[in-house]
Every structure is written in C-alpha cells, then in structure tokens.
Amino acid sequence: xxxxxxxxxxxxxxxxxxxxxxxxxxxxxxxxxxxxxxxxxxxxxxxxxxxxxxxxxxxxxxxxxxxxxxxxxxxxxxxxxxxxxxxxxxxxxxxxxxxxxxxxxxxxxxxxxxxxxxxxxxxxxxxxxxxxxxxxxxxxxxxxxxxxxxxxxxxxxxxxxxxxxxxxxxxxxxxxxxxxxxxxxxxxxxxxxxxxxxxxxxxxxxxxxxxxxxxxxxxxxxxxxxxxxxxxxxxxxxxxxxxxxxxxxxxxxxxxxxxxxxxxxxxxxxxxxxxxxxxxxxxxxxxxxxxxxxxxxxxxxxxxxxxxxxxxxxxxxxxxxxxxxxxxxxxxxxxxxxxxxxxxxxxxxxxxxxxxxxxxxxxxxxxxxxxxxxxxxxxxxxxxxxxxxxxxxxxxxxxxxxxxxxxxxxxxxxxxxxxxxxxxxxxxxxxxxxxxxxxxxxxxxxxxxxxxxxxxxxxxxxxxxxxxxxxxxxxxxxxxxxxxxxxxxxxxxxxxxx
Length: 498
Ligand code: HEM
Known about the structure:
single chain; alpha+beta; CATH 1.10.630.10; two-stranded antiparallel ribbon; 498 residues; four-stranded mixed beta sheet; 19 helices; binds protoporphyrin IX containing FE; globular
C-alpha cells in the first residue's frame, strides 16, 4: 500500500516536472501573449466556468493588453480584445488565422469538418464558400428578396395582430425567420403551421441548448470511444434527424432539377456542379459530392436563422425601450416608403432605421465571442507569437464596448452612424464588426443587412410596439448557450398603425 502511494507520488511529481519543463521551453521559444497565472491542466477555471466569459476576458485585457492568453483546462487559447489586433490577425495575416479547430461535437455536426462553418482553411472550404456566396448573392437580384420577405412577413404580422394580450414576440419571430430561410434554401413557401418547419425549429433549439451548454466529449475526446453518454446519444440523434430533412430536400431537388432553372439556394449549388461537369473540372467535382453539398446547405440555413432571429429580438427590445426612437423610425418609414411595401429601392434612404439596425448589431451583439479560429502556421499578433494550431477568439463584445471607439458604450445611440444631415456616414466606426472580418467574414452579410432592414421597416410600418401599460424595460440580460446574450424574456403589445 505504502509502495503504491509512493509510486503515485513519484508519477505525479514526474508529470508535474515534465509539464514545468515543457512550459519553460515553450515560453523560451516563443514570446507568448500574457495572461494571469493558473494551475497547469486545470487552467483558468474561474474564466471558463463563468457564463459571461467575454466580460471577464475584457476585464483581463485592461491588465494584460489586447491579446490575452488563457488556458481552458489544458488547452491554451488566445483572445483578441481590440479592433487593431483583430484586423492585424484576420485581415493583414488572414490565411494564418483562418483555420477552425476540430472538436468531437463539431465533427459530428459537420461530417468531420465538411461544409463551410466548421471546415478548416483549405481549397475545399474556399470552393464551397465561393459557390455558396454566389448562390446567396442570387437573392439580391431583382425583387426576389423583397417579394419573399413581404409574402412571408404578411402572414406572420397578421398572426401578431390577432394577439389580444401581451405576448412574447420571440416566438413569432422564430417561426417567421425559419419560414424565410426555408424558402431561401428549399424554394417552398410552407403554410404558417407547417409541421416540418416546426420540427426543424425544435431540433435546432434542442441542438443549440445541448451544444451551447458544452459537451463533455470535447474535453475528454476518447470518452465517446469507450462510453456513450445520454447527451451524446441525444445530440447524435438530433443531428441525424436534422440532416435527414435536408438530405431529403436535396434529393427532391436533384430529382426535379431542370438545367437553366434556378428555383432556390439548392438549385444554385446544383448549377455550380453542372458547370463543373460541363467544364470537365474533376478537382471541383470531387469536392462537390452530395454529402458536402448537404452540409453547405445546412450551414447556410442554421447560420442564417439564429443570427437573424436574435438580431430581430434585440431590435424590438430596443424599440420598446426607446419609444421616441421607434417614432423617429416610423416618421422616416412613412416619409420614404409611404403606404408602399418597404423594398430594396428604399434601402438607401432609410438612414435612421438602418442606423438603428447597426446600433442593434453593436449593442445587442449576441455573438459575443464569435467562433473559434485556429492558426494554420506559426504567426504573430500585437507583437506576440501565436504558434501553429492555437485556438484564437475575437472578443466581439469587447470591440463593441471599447470606450476608445464608443462614447457611452452602454447607450443605444443610432446617431453614431449618421452625419450632421442625418444621412448614413460613408464609413462605420472602426470597432463595428458584428460580421467579423477577413477570410472568415460572415458569408451572409450582403443578404442579412437588407433582409433585416426590410423586416424592421415592415414591422414598424404596420405596428406601434409597446411594453404593456405600467411595465418598465427590463435591463437584465439572459446569457444562453455559447455565451449568447439576449434580452430577458419580455412581453409586448402591438397596435396597428394603418
Ligand atoms: C445579423 C445577422 C448575422 C450576423 C451578425 C452574422 C455574423 C457572423 C459571424 C460573426 C461569423 C463568424 C465569422 C468568423 O468566424 O470570424 C459568421 C459566419 C458565417 N455566417 Fe453569418 N451572420 C449573420 C447572418 C448570416 C446569414 C443570413 C447567413 C446565410 C444566409 C450567414 C452565413 C454565415 C456563414 C456560412 C458563416 C461561416 C463562414 C466561414 O466559416 O467561412 N450569416 N456570421
């Protein structure tokens, strides 16, 4: 017994010594970014176990500077906390920082890093980004986007108008935006209570909650090979069900595809495949297999729904919190759009409403720490070395609250984006980066901005949105899975304006 415990002590001392030597050698070889001391292997527990990591890390950056290095368990990670270092890494040295780290749960969702979002920097990722980007831009042609938004919104605004008691708008927005992305991706206009859309929403919600709360197998990757936890089974089954729906849609499209006719996003991808066939581009055809295309569709669908619905939720929250700003948007919408339907032609003259959307994206910045990047080679940022294979996060929350760039960062102030004549400034403040920057910049930005603006304009054209009588805005923030920040549940009442 005594011998065993002595042996254990020796082993532990050996491991400790080994770690210390490794740490010292690594420190000597590289000029690593600074960060507070932590217990090896355990890491900065107080930071990574906190729900508001982004806020804690922003605080640390006041002490350690804009590039902070922390250990999440045994894994070192780097956090970029101001726009200068973000642009240096993501734009100036863009390829260096454009990888994505692997994780067991990410691999489950992306068939081992296929698709776009979870695929690391590679020619295959670049090619899928290119064809998906072209497919998204297709919606900016003619009146495609505005017609789709109009048709879809009318159904849901009618539903909201039927609400007699105060209600949570999030539930309506979620359904509305799921229907919208469903039409973009699959071409169909489902009925308001379509069961398949409902299933997609429920699966997305379950996956969001479960992935968002963290997955044990990502910390102990070998666990899944020896024991399947109940949560892993649930994640795997929900992922399969969700991808099965998209696979079925994809197959329907392949079976009914007519060359030269582009019905939706899936057809755009099939057209890209057809062009590669015509050109005999074997390299492209090899990576345009059904599995990868299905994952690209899934990425667009889910990247589009959550971001759009959370932005709309924050927009309504700010409009109820600042009724005077809501009235100013309505004055503008009445003046510019009148009784027409808000459309792309009004986009460039809805300066104030657009400024409110930009400010919503800053202050209601739900993607607080973005998505992990990974260095694909040894690189540097802010004067520090970042070794190959390091996970790097952009702290968007820190950028959007940086007092160097934002006076009174906690204030909802659309005038930040307007010149003295009330027109949109030609450039936005430097530290406004909700869509990120560089090679991994959001692929949907070009469509998300007009889509959200038209939705905001439609909503405020039709309704006055208020908190119920006697209710004050709730300043509390709800931090959900992945650290996403949302307003606490709030109820509203709507009154038809016309
Ligand atoms: C308000 C709306 C949106 C916001 C704020 C937003 C923001 C972001 C951010 C921060 C990223 C991560 C960039 C990085 O890794 O550094 C991202 C990636 C992405 N977004 Fe968006 N997004 C929005 C809407 C959309 C929409 C509507 C679509 C699709 C129609 C979309 C498709 C994508 C895709 C495919 C990626 C992955 C890009 C890659 O990894 O190469 N997004 N978005």
